[in-house]
Amino acid sequence: MEYRGKILLLIPHMVGGGAERVASLLMNAFADDGYRTELALTSDRERDVVRCDLDERTSLLVLPELLKSDPAGKRFLYGGALRLLANGLCKLWELPGREVPADLARLSLTVPYHREIRWLRERLKADPELAVIAFLQPAIPIAMLAARGLPNRVIFSERCDSERLMKKRYGRRFIEKYYLRADGAVFQTSFARDAYPAGVAKKGVVIPNPLRSDLPEPLEGKREKRVVTFCRISRQKNLPLLVDAFSRFYRDHPDYALEIIGGSAGEEGREVEQELRARIGSLGLNEAVRFLPFSAGVHQDILNAAMYVNSSDFEGLSNAMLESMAIGLPVVCTDCPIGGARATIEDGVNGLLVPMNDPKALSGAMTRLADAPGLGKKLSENAVTLRKALSLPVIARRWLGVLYGGTERGR
Asked: pTM for the complete prediction?
């Protein structure tokens, strides 16, 4: 295969989330196209890495374990004195609700991530041909600072709520000054792009998430009375809303079950799951709600379910939603920021949209699907058209066009 170039993707974690899945699929596609690929983690540990979607052609670098520790004196300086100083100064600005100045935010970021910034800068200096894609915080600002003044192509993709990001320490002021280094940006929705400062937003394009190429074909046959969701268990997913809505739905549909598929990684996940199980018990739903571990065959497992429901408070562009639509599951989603569901779902045509934090509306949408099989069939038939538009080769080519500025090499 013809060698086409080198791409390094920088991302904080590889713990099985949606952004990590998109990153992995893209790197696989770039390797298919003749690129040498590396994926570097800024904030992870080897024991926490979930590599199920990333194939072996891409080197995986866990920077916190790869980089040598600083000498004791430098650890004291960066880990103690300078960190306390930088955080303290930032808090003086943040407490009254003011935006942190760009250079002060830069100091606050550089102190804990000086090794990662230095490592990436040395890599880029040594290889001007190396192109970089940065996903999420803090990988994006690390890449912007490391690449300053260097010729390497660098693009970024923020996958979370851009409006929330603007209000944070590395928000609007930092972005206005340091993100101008980017050669391009990829956003999941126009709402996310337009929340950025104009000088950065004009460099951005909207590219949906790619679909896996190994999804099963849509069901031809009878559906089981199961309501399913699959996700990483976290506060963002607002699973208590789903449980409350299912409790209402279950009163008139006691032959249905709810399946929550996914893991609860980290302290937050374990805390959320514990609270969720207590809520299910208090509602008398222990026999109706099942927690199942995530598996590589999850799409086959849910293929004949009655519906997929997403109750999130915010999403970039939910992979679980897209994949459920692509395999023909009737889908119900909250109309949450940053607008990924709204950009994909035409309400009543290829899915159902409901307001956020409204258990009555969510229960009502579930009831509509349960009581009107013809509606579910219509939504399913229209949703599966996503398979072609969001195929991995199509989406990967669009990313390469942004990364290489629309040159022949990037098409």
From this structure: 0.84
Are residues 395 and 343 both part of a single domain? Answer: no
Q: Which two three-digit tokens encode residue 133?
A: 């894609």
Q: Are residues 205 and 256 in the same domain?
A: no
CATH, residue 101: 3.40.50.2000
Task: Give bridge partners of residue 59 from the DSSP assignment.
Answer: 38
SS (H, E, C) 120-160: HHHHHHHCCCEEEEEECCCHHHHHHHHCCCCCCCEEEECCC
- 47, 155: one domain: yes
Residue type, 247: S
Residues 182 and 261 in one domain: no
Q: How far is 134 from 147, CA to CA, in rounded Å?
A: 11
- The 10s digit of each residue's pLDDT in 91-122 is 998 888 889 999 999 999 998 999 999 999 99
* pLDDT surpasses 90 at 191: no
In a domain, 369, yes or no: yes
Amino acid at 37: T
Please choose, from the candidates 132, 127, 122, the residue with its C-alpha nearest in 3D space to the C-alpha of residue 157: 132
Q: Which domain holds residue 112?
A: 5-69+97-210+391-410
Q: Domain tally for the chain? A: 2
Q: Which residues contact 241 (CB under 8 A, 6 or more apart)?
A: 311, 334, 357, 359, 362
The whole-number average pLDDT for the span 217-239 is 93
Predicted confidence (pLDDT) per residue in 255-298, tens digit:
999 999 998 877 888 899 999 999 999 999 999 999 999 888 99
Q: What is the pLDDT of residues 331-388, one digit of tens each?
A: 999 999 888 899 999 999 999 999 999 999 999 999 999 999 999 999 999 999 999 9
Give the 3-state secondary structure of 266-280.
HHHHHHHHHHHHHHH
